[in-house]
Task: inverse folding
């Protein structure tokens, strides 16, 4: 999926969202492949596909992903990971991911993936990380040759059910000077709490290496509590079910929100919520509040002052881009340019970057928004 020719207006305005600089914190490498790339890599690898037409394949992924179940949603990754088992496949997918993010206006992107899922064709864990980094570097160089500004970092994920957490944490730390900026645990959330990988998180803490943890997507408050206590998470992957710890009451024309201690801690510490609106609908993460985007607790969090960020999760499965996700939430909640910038500044502050780089990134975002809007008004 390429976004080079896409123009997504901010609802109610002439502002083209692709032209605004953006920060992407939650983007899965194996969830963002171009359909045509899957077809070509599958032919080389002997992987059977439901169709060899790129448009039909994109539609197939979207259909299978709209299941309302995280477990069913995750099954679509059997195909994408199957074509990412060689150095060449990993490099190509990583390079194209950077180009697609750059075309969408992303200036800092953190791309996460699970090396342990890419070993069936003989690569070692270190070789997979090196292959992905080579692809990311090539993508950045190519994007910059096209006049696009983008930097990226890898987030190495351990699969919650696989019991290789310590090994993957060691891998992440080993490559901290070769593009890896953070650690994550992913996969089936319910039944696989962060505490199962306490040794991995102990190592990361001792190494002063940052972690984000998928939590509050397919499981509730206990999962989030575990991510914070056992995982020492600096960010929550999705985190939408934190809304279960917020009590809303109405008295006359006034509405009041009472935060439980967990929600209060997340808010007061500035722990970022990596919401992914379309994905959260697809997996049923917000089912208890409704089945439309306007039911998403994202706006509740935002109005209460949480560090909310907007992300894509899996661009292929959701048929989306970051610009599209921002347009969707803007349409649902009546957001304007200032709100879109606020989400980007939240993401910049939460990025796994040195503080000086985060300050520079925030300045770039503000300048980019001002320049884009000035050009629009001049036109």
Result:
């Amino acid at each position: 999926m390429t976004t080079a020719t896409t123009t997504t207006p901010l609802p109610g305005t002439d502002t083209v969202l692709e032209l605004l600089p953006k920060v992407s914190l939650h983007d899965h490498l194996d969830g963002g492949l171009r359909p045509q790339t899957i077809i070509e890599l599958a032919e080389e690898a002997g992987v059977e596909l439901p169709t060899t037409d790129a448009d039909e394949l994109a539609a197939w992924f979207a259909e299978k992903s709209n299941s309302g179940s995280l477990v069913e949603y995750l099954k679509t990754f059997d195909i994408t990971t199957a074509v990412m088992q060689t150095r060449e496949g990993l490099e190509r997918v990583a390079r194209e991911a950077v180009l697609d993010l750059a075309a969408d206006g992303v200036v800092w992107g953190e791309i996460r993936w699970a090396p342990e899922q890419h070993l069936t064709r003989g690569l070692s864990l270190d070789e997979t990380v090196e292959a992905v980094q080579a692809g990311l570097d090539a993508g950045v160089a190519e994007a910059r040759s096209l006049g696009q500004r983008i930097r990226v970092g890898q987030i190495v994920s351990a699969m919650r059910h696989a019991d290789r957490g310590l090994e993957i944490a060691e891998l992440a730390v080993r490559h901290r000077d070769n593009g890896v900026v953070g650690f994550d645990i992913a996969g089936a959330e319910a039944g696989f709490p962060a505490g199962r990988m306490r040794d991995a998180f102990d190592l990361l803490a001792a190494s002063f290496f940052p972690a984000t943890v998928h939590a509050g997507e397919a499981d509730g408050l206990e999962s989030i509590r575990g991510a914070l206590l056992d995982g020492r998470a600096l960010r929550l992957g999705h985190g939408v079910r934190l809304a279960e710890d917020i009590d809303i009451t109405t008295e006359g024309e006034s509405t009041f929100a009472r935060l439980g201690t967990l929600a209060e801690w997340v808010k007061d510490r500035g722990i970022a919520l990596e919401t992914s609106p379309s994905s959260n609908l697809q997996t049923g993460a917000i089912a208890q509040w409704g089945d439309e985007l306007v039911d998403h607790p994202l706006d509740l969090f935002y109005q209460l002052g949480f560090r909310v960020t907007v992300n894509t999760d899996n661009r292929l499965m959701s048929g989306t881009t970051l610009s599209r996700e921002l347009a969707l939430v803007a349409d649902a909640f009546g957001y304007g340019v200032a709100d879109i910038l606020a989400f980007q500044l939240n993401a910049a502050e939460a990025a796994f970057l040195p503080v000086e780089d985060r300050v520079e990134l925030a300045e770039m975002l503000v300048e980019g928004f001002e320049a884009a809007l000035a050009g629009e008004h001049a036109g």
Remarks:
- Residues 17-378 form a domain with the TIM Barrel fold (CATH 3.20.20.140).
